[in-house]
User: Which sequence fits this backbone?
């Protein structure tokens, strides 16, 4: 294991597909997976802990981080910034740890450009109707917001070409198991497992 | 599932690594996996059943099949022919079934040329010593035969570049589980899962 770089696992998909729920169960199932904590400029909500839920920074601090190219990806939603700090992720990968990013499609696109070796997993709804139900079921939003979200989700579904794998979230446990298999298989892919085997089996080691 | 082509899973690796044992447990664990029965020109041993262990053919019949390009791969060992019949494999793949080939490294090389879309898994020994033990432990062979097998295994280990995945056979159950994950993950890879998702989520289907 030592000396081997970890995998960057990017779990993304349309808003409302259930990334949070699947990501949380995946982390329970694979406790060694490092979860990347995002930076945000929005104020903490009750119960949210610095460094656990988010790193909370001012808009000015966030903008300074953007200038310093400190983000693997970032975006602004509803006047608040959200971003994935690069240093933490790269440090864990260099230590050989697998890192999980649960991010929006827009952010995944940025990560693909900056770190093409990542394992990009698109979480898809079982049907379009299921996604509509999820987006509407979130509750209090007015019809205009819901309609905008649906339009956005439709756009996001078209971005699937960017991804290495498609996992249908028809059942949370089944989706988690599929993602676990993807991570296992990616570790066994030739480019990654090859050096390890060479190391085990070269003549210098044999004799 | 319908309309989707199955996966050709090629399990290979140096002679003595345990392909047979791992392959058998994998088939028990994944009963839907179609096992490709080989054709051979060697006479049946006691208890061997036509169409289960092998398809038994005369040398002349085998050579006629070679001329008709009926094999995905074939080779001659100790004056007997062994080969994988193409028609059976392609028929099952077209039906959407996954097909498992347990074959020698030499045969895997031929399959890679003829069917590059296969999923090529190299079963590797945990250490070179473990492979030596296995080859020597097979028993009755004289030292010259053993020495020739070791030389061949050493050559075969170098062919790992041809494969998509490397699975170390340190424990049969663990190796089987890794291969199961590889097959699951390969079904979820974009190129394969993509059309399926498009079919589920295109507007024509939604509305």
Assistant:
């Amino acid at each position: 294991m030592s000396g081997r770089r970890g995998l960057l696992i990017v779990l993304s998909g349309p808003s409302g597909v259930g990334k949070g729920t699947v990501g949380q169960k995946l982390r329970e199932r694979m406790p060694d997976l490092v979860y990347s904590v995002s930076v945000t400029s929005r104020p903490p909500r009750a119960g949210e802990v610095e460094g656990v839920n988010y790193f909370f920074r001012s808009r000015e601090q966030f903008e300074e981080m953007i200038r310093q190219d400190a983000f693997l990806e970032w975006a602004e939603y509803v006047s608040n910034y959200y971003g994935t700090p690069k240093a933490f992720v790269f440090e864990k990968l260099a230590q050989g740890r697998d890192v999980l990013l649960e991010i929006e499609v827009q952010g995944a696109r940025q990560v693909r450009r900056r770190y093409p070796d990542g394992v990009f997993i698109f979480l898809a709804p079982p049907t379009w109707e299921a996604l509509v139900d999820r987006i509407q079921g979130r509750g209090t939003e007015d019809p205009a917001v819901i309609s905008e979200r649906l339009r956005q989700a439709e756009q996001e579904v078209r971005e699937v070409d960017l991804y290495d794998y498609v996992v249908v979230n028809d059942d949370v446990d089944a989706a988690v198991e599929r993602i676990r298999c993807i991570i296992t298989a990616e570790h066994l892919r030739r480019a990654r497992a090859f050096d390890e085997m060479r190391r085990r089996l070269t003549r210098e080691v044999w004799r």
About this structure: The domain at 8-36+98-206 of chain B is CATH 3.40.50.300 (Rossmann fold). The beta strands of chain B are 8-12, 34-35, 39-40, 55-56, 71-77, 80-85, 99-102, 119-124, 165-168. The interface with chain A takes residues 122, 124-129, 157, 160-161, 163-168, 178, 180-182, 184-186, 188-190, 193-194, 196-198, 200-201, 205-206 of chain B (CB under 8 Å).
